[in-house]
């Protein structure tokens, strides 16, 4: 079990998550865009999904979400659901392209993050919060998504590293030499 | 590239079900979850402190770029306010002293008697939904869940979660926040001069456009003293202080208990007249100063509810009372207290900024501009108050 933990992705996901959480609670609270806090952890979960597929993205999102809920004091699991969905959606979208360009990665990361950001008020509604769908959601979701797209060139490799994955290498099939 | 299979789908489903399980456990209250939460918060503290040190220069640079113009405008507006307040500070100070004397005289509940704990704001919510701050004092300082939190301007929020050395405070603007309040008015609308930055974040032109802010310029020294209907001056609401204020005379000498009692008797004997300056015999110009009185009426009691960071809190469950006065913009809002209320009576909350009438018997909705600037909280004061229904339990 210990060996599985050491060799698995969690040993990288947890410390990276702690650093990202600290950044989320310090610098990203200050660097707001139009009053919207950029969700770097959710963007990383979506980026991990893009890099490693929906299952691994969901695992990263789940771990990040639980960490976020533990420290932020939000109901445990409420952000975890949203980040799990962000990672899963990012991974599912990445299936469209076998070897996506950087801009496709950015698009998938943005869409995954948007799915996660829209899930949060839904979860809050289910746990009894009255009217969590603020008008601001129309601003929050695009800003958070665009920020995720902008950060994706950094976050996708970071997600890949967390998951102990290497960039897929596609090589051109070697043509057989014509027989003379 | 990952391939979508049934097995992978099961993993995602299992994770989602786990989150639902965690959510259920946490919402029902689970000591294990609380312990894990506290333990992880402790583990995160050094990481966050180190990150804060590293990112602080970036934050400062960002603020310098983004907030410079706002800061300059705010500085000018504050300078104007300081100039205006200097003129009225002396009169207000005297009114506060009179108010405390009267509260003591009539054994009225006063915030001065409630202990408070000053705390520093160390963090804001990191998501876009909650209006929550974190303070650096916790259960070791006597702070408990539910206690109201104020600053010099008025009510800020209430404590919702307490750790040993920190606590979380839900701000008045949070959509989950509710508190019982009373709406009060004076016959004369005395309102603040609109400034470039308003506590709720509304631009001053929006405030003026709403047609709700009236500006009354009062010459220094003519600060009106509110009175009870029977003519006695009403003490202006004061924020809680750790110690009772001493009473001083015009020369700055502290009055003894007997002298204070004599002063109180003089106030009762002559409620609408300020103490007359006694002149030595032989002088020919005796002067009497009459204080203008503006009665403050408690119009209605209702519930103040937060509506998120970008919308003003609203008061519901209120109706116009023809025998008293109509609820209108400019009315004062204070906590109402009560045996079940988590906040003691008399904490200033804000001012009614807008009134929206609803059809039927729903009564009007009152938008309230909060006195405290919730975007710039540095130090707050936790009022160590327990509702009467919980005292002794």
Written account of the structure:
The complex is a heterodimer of chains A (180) and B (393). With 180 residues, chain A is mainly alpha-helical. Chain A has helices spanning 2-7, 10-25, 27-30, 40-52, 54-72, 78-94, 102-126, 137-162. The mean pLDDT of chain A is 88. With 393 residues, chain B is an alpha+beta fold. Chain B is built from 4 helices and 13 strands. Chains A and B meet through α2, α3, α5, α6 and α7 of A and α1 and α2 of B.
Output the keywords.
heterodimer; A: 180 residues; mainly alpha; globular; B: 393 residues; alpha+beta; 6-stranded antiparallel barrel; 13 strands
| Strands of chain B, total number | 13
Please count the helical segments of chain A: 8
- Biggest sheet statistics of chain B: 6 strands, antiparallel, barrel
The fraction of residues assigned to DSSP E strands of chain A is under 5%
Largest Cβ-defined interface: A-B, 66 and 54 residues
Using only CA atoms, what is the Rg of chain B?
25 Å
What's the rounded overall pLDDT mean of chain A?
88
User: What is the structural class of chain B?
Assistant: alpha+beta
Helix content of chain B: 25-40%
Low-confidence stretches of chain A: none
Largest sheet of chain A: none
Q: Which of globular, elongated, flat, extended, rod-shaped describes the shape of chain A?
A: globular
Total helical segments of chain B? 4
The assigned structural class of chain A equals mainly alpha
Oligomer: heterodimer
Low-confidence stretches of chain B: 187-245, 268-292
List the helices and strands and how they pair.
The complex is a heterodimer of chains A (180) and B (393).
Chain A: H1 2-7, H2 10-25, H3 27-30, H4 40-52, H5 54-72, H6 78-94, H7 102-126, H8 137-162
Chain B: H1 6-28, H2 31-105, E1 116-124, E2 132-135, E3 148-151, E4 154-162, E5 167-171, E6 178-186, H3 204-209, E7 225-227, H4 257-269, E8 293-305, E9 314-316, E10 332-335, E11 348-356, E12 365-370, E13 379-383
Parallel strand pairs in B: 7-8
Antiparallel strand pairs in B: 1-2, 1-13, 2-5, 3-4, 3-13, 4-5, 6-8, 6-10, 8-9, 9-12, 10-11, 11-12
